[in-house]
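Summary for the steering committee. The consortium agreed at its last meeting that each partner would contribute one worked example illustrating the joint modelling workflow. Our contribution is presented below. We chose a case with several input lines so that the handling of multiple components could be demonstrated. No manual editing was applied between input and output; the record is shown as generated.
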Amino acid sequence: MKLTIDHKSAIPLHIQAENLLRELIREPEYQAGKLLPNEVDLAKKLAISRTTLRQAINKLVYEELLVRKKRLGTKVAHTKMSSKSMNWLSFTQEMEARGITIKNYELHVSWVFPEDHIANFFDIKTDKKVLKMERLRGNTEEAFVYFISYFHPRIGLSGEEDFKKPLYEMLENEHSVIADLSKEEISAKAADKFIAGKLEIDPGSPVLIRKRFVYDQGERPMEYNLGYYKAESFVYTVESRRSS
Amino acid sequence: MKLTIDHKSAIPLHIQAENLLRELIREPEYQAGKLLPNEVDLAKKLAISRTTLRQAINKLVYEELLVRKKRLGTKVAHTKMSSKSMNWLSFTQEMEARGITIKNYELHVSWVFPEDHIANFFDIKTDKKVLKMERLRGNTEEAFVYFISYFHPRIGLSGEEDFKKPLYEMLENEHSVIADLSKEEISAKAADKFIAGKLEIDPGSPVLIRKRFVYDQGERPMEYNLGYYKAESFVYTVESRRSS
DNA sequence: TTTTATAATATGTACAAACATACTATCATA
DNA sequence: TATGATAGTATGTTTGTACATATTATAAAA
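What follows is the complete predicted structure of the assembly.
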């Protein structure tokens, strides 16, 4: 295993060091709880300053992959990797995993000026149009969720794509954009007239709102997704552990 | 509001700076998205080095309380009350981390025969009474959540414990039960008459329901917790990655 | 008018150098 | 033997300095 850093590379040294440490601590001897080399020595070995090395170590400490102990040194945290590897799926996959066959009731695609919070998330101006997709979906019995998605202009969608295909697969194959990180916010609200109409419920009835901020592999925003779920039709589950 | 740092204090400067920033960004003008003073000026004002200040800012950036933008500056991330999925905390800690002082409006403790699904979760018979705790909680302004908790008999609670103390701390110190794993289900529902009365909303208004199945370190069920949140007062946040 | 430089500004990266602090092991002393 | 002083070691804290880079606003040139 090579433990070298390229000083001529455009990639910042502390990022290189971080990646290098990530690889390093995957090795069996470190998984067993072995200590990392001490900071001064390791910095010397990598030919970077201790400060820069600490920058890299700190990031992994924040992520709880490493634990510092005074006088002892820094070692790999033994966290069994269960809570972190919670991976997310597309809506169709998610539903199929629950044994539900999904059906599309409506599909609209349009170009709109983004609202402030969307432009802010995308980090673009409000006078640049973005692609908006709306979908009414459910099982074979009834529609139970209304989705509104906005896509970052960077992706280069034309609006002519086949949105009936699995979305993230299509984006990956046809536009080389790979979804990687999703931040979600779940809240409850009373349905307004528009949503109530779509879901065929009374205005004022409760809906579960799930906002998704989706980022690509470069941590760049790529999709803003809003889902309005008919209450009782959707339960969001989370499993989490206390670190120790 | 005092924006000073005590150089003679035993508390490290970057920790003081961090706390100071936490207070600062709670101010309404920053909640609105105002930019922090730039690093060089702020460092000068606090009489600490830019490096030290950045140490403090970085921590808040990692917690996603602050967002850096090149050339623009650093601003407060737009988040309401939210709960991170990783490293879950007690309700009080969770709220205090967001700068909210919690207040207990009601507290009842009783012994009841468990309903089927609770007995099932605890793996006990329905003729064995369990301790039930109900709490109406909120901030200093209003109550916004009603909790119902059931505790496994194994814990050995008498019902005479001081439930005003942080719950999991108390269980750990006085009963040696350490909460470790939490499985949660979030859904939305219309408030029934009872909940509506407690939260002072109209029956039929939306509430967010958060069920928690809490296990101890031996993966044994220890608590069943049900929270009814007034809609709009609570946002549940989740962050997940695909591969990694 | 539109495009193209350019300057200004804030964060980003990186280094070297000290000293502080917590903890441990060892050795000396009562 | 038990206690206490001490030296050693690794992380923790802090500063000063310098240049890089991305972005925006402004001014100059087409």
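The interface with chain B takes residues 58, 62, 83-88, 117, 120, 179-190, 204-208, 229, 231-232, 234-244 of chain A (CB under 8 Å). The mean pLDDT of chain A is 81.
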